[in-house]
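Bumping with the actual sequence this time:
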Amino acid sequence: MTIARPRRAQAPTAYIARIGMTSLALSLALAFGMAPEVARAQENPVRVSIPSQPLGDALLQLGEQTPLQIFFSQNVVAGLTAHNVAGNLPPEEALQQLLQGTGIEYARSGDNITLTSPQSVATATATATATATAQLAPVMIKGGILGDLSAPYAGGQLATGGSLGLLGAEDIMDSPFSTVNYTSELLYDQQARTLADVVVNDASVRTLTSTGGFGEDFQIRGFPVGSGDVSVNGLYGLVSSSRVPVQILERVEVLKGPGTLMRGIPPNGSVGGSINVVTKRADDEPLTRVTGSYASEKNLTAQVDLGRRFGEDNAWGVRFNGVVRGGEATTRDGEQKLGMAALGVDYRGDRLRWSMDAIHQEDVLENIRSQLGFDKSVTELPDPPDGRTNFYPGTRLTQRDSTIMSRLEYDFTDNVTAHIGMGYREGNNRQIFPVNVVPGSPPNRQSADADGNFSVMTTYYDSYSKTFSSDAGLTADFDTGIVGHRVALGLTYMDQELGNAYSAGTIDVPSNIYNPTPLPPGPAERLSPKRASQSTLTSYAVSDTLSFADDRVLLTLGARHQTVDVNSYSTSTGARTSGYRASAVSPVAGIVFKPLDYVSIYGNFTQGLTRGTIVGQSYANQGEVLDPYKSKQYETGVKVDWGDITTTLAFWQIARPAGQEDDNNVYGYFGEQRNRGVELTAFGELLPGLRLMASAAYTQGKLTKTQDGINEGNRAPGVPTSTYNLGLDWDTPWVEGLSLNGRVLRTSSVYLNNTNSLRLPGLTRFDVGARYRTKFAGKSVVIRANIENLTDKRYWLASNSFATNGAGRTYMLSASVNF
């Protein structure tokens, strides 16, 4: 049996408040003024928004959005589809609309609803008494549509909470941190291809590279976050270091600010935030979904998604996703191929839960969208070329990744749970790589000049990675008098070996960004990758979340002791060239105060230890391992859950050492980068069938405490002062099943260097889309069409000291059929 659980108490949403919600300060004032309405919320109709979907899933959503607890067996709802139900409805009327035309009847006792097929109404009536719970055992209680995932919020695009590692799964209103949790519904409806397409839905997150490049890098709160720092199911180092396909993902969880306490040290030292992805699991409802997609130019994708549960109480589950992609995509004469298979197996018992994932991914990209450096004498960038231009015709990336991971959880008692997770990944990359540094050439020919002229030669840059990652922990819930505790103990261990081979070319040719020259012949010999570094990151942590005054005050205290052990090796001789071992304790404190059930005022202080950078090839001290460093964050804000819309306001500051080069082309930590900002967000349903995601971020990135005062007070490179997002998704009233959507992303100008002499202009991008849900031959069909960069805007993107041209107008069309 399954129970659709009731959602948490939320504030009623007034029409004028939803429409006028442009200021979070105003939201807070209105929230306190609406307190008398809360007492009447239980007697009034509630806002319901449930799209057309399998009936079992729709009932689970109804249980989350109303006080009803709905008991049903899977054989009662198997094969049935619920129509869209939305509006301000009494809970039972919403239930009746969902069941209309199904032949299913129900019996009610209080808020308990028991569903039955028509021939067993008498049995249903008997079981819907006060003793029904005992008679229905064993019962699986689901916190959301997919096992222990948090329930979707109003509108279905975001979730009510997500995982915070050591701190466990937390509702956003109970968390002293800023988090965003995207659902698979959003991933499908936006036709996201990789992780980068998802995270840009929040104004505090931007991509530093465009689609079709060597890899994907992100920026959170003005600090870079590479794909290598993305965790999967809470473990670092187990997804591709270049790009993460969305076909394996059920949720995408974004934490703004350092996440050291939650999951330990990220392998590449990100401090602005962290991204965790959650893999797919089989749902109770059988799934056979086939999706075909087209993206301009001439790129085709086929995907199959299979899910089944079996055994007593559906305890065992299997989920398989297979993807094949090929054809020209966003660069002229380019090729983007993907072959991927992902298998997820899980078991959920009364006390024991276990899961295993096996993922194999192969990518081949030809004529890659590459990055370009500019000479130091350039003070104004040339106009960006069109979005389909590849600066280096002839580039190629072949990537292969294999991952296996497993997780085990066991409830010793109702209040004590232990877990252990571990995984292993091997990755191999082979690249035909462009280099602009030409031996013996004048300085102004080392990179592009103001007219876009440069010289280029071909190199081979091949690499591998071997990563073992694990964590273990114990959590206990108990009370000491009137104070509640949730104590957590955690251990993490990650060992990562990286190797590479750099085969330099000897022939250079002149080229230009508007008329690129094909790469010249490469070096005669291609070297095999050898070990370049070995990193071991270990930590242990403890935290206690204390609750006071009937959970109106939540205080989180914790600390993580971390040890970083890094060694660098010569790839030619194998000898150790440098290294260090360092340890530090990183404390965390957070508090949530709830003056009303639907208002949370929060604050946090976090401190993290980051492993030092291994200096890259373009600097005089290449291969040097820099010392680890600490970063600090202070944050405070307010969150208001209006029932259908949640709004947040956050003030924050993060400071960390600033990486830059000196006059001798030596890279090091010279000074500090201090980012301060204000963030505003709103998401949910403005009106029935009208979904909203809106956010704005204002950031002051500044260089401070610089060596000899050089560049003191300058804007930090790559950090925009303002970013804005507005996304709307609307179920049209005149055509059942037709929805329209649009999104605007605005990013202000940024500087490309520490001297603030080279500026990239701001950009505004428009995306639009539509989808149509219908039935064909008795099968559920969803057709989606999207256009990214509707106006074919030409623009530059900045990543460190490099720039790349953004992708041009891109058309995407897909059809998904559920068999």
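The tokens above came from a reply further down the thread. The chain has two domains: 2-142, 287-818.
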